[in-house]
Specification:
Blueprint: H1 2-43, H2 47-79, H3 83-96, H4 102-120, H5 126-132
Helix pairs in contact: 1-2, 1-4, 2-3, 3-4
């Protein structure tokens, strides 16, 4: 039972990490887009260059929202103890290994918690299978 409580605490920590860092990613990208929208038109007067900056800006915003929204959903699901949330966090954790250094740590932590959760739900010995049946 103590192992289960420990895993539940880790799930809460993982959910909080997902919510905090997903929100930070969204806020930072939106702030950067706001600054770019305010500064670039003062220095670039060519229409094609402004169009290219807008395309890149919206592509980065879209990519950020596409990648961080599932992490935000997984974090909320982990805090509400949904069954699917840990699997989603595992998948996002594998993808997050590419985001060095913070998302790499969160990805490794997600994978470890997922494995610990899977191992705690399995019987430890063959006699445990017959004892419950």
């Amino acid at each position: 039972m103590a192992n289960q409580v420990n895993i539940d605490q880790h799930k809460k920590i993982l959910g909080t990490l997902y919510i905090v860092f997903s929100s930070l990613n969204i806020v930072i990208v939106l702030m950067a887009a706001l600054i770019i929208s305010a500064v670039v038109p003062n220095y670039v007067h060519d229409f094609e260059s402004l169009l290219a900056v807008k395309i890149v800006k919206y592509a980065v915003i879209t990519l950020t929202l596409v990648l961080t929204t599932p992490a935000l959903i997984a974090g909320i699901g982990l805090l509400y103890k949904k069954d699917w949330a840990l699997t989603l966090a595992f998948v996002i954790g594998i993808i997050g290994l590419l985001g060095f250094p913070i998302w790499t740590f969160i990805g490794i932590y997600s994978i470890v918690i997922f494995i610990m959760s899977q191992n705690s739900s399995r019987p430890k010995q063959a006699t445990d299978l017959t004892a419950n049946g």
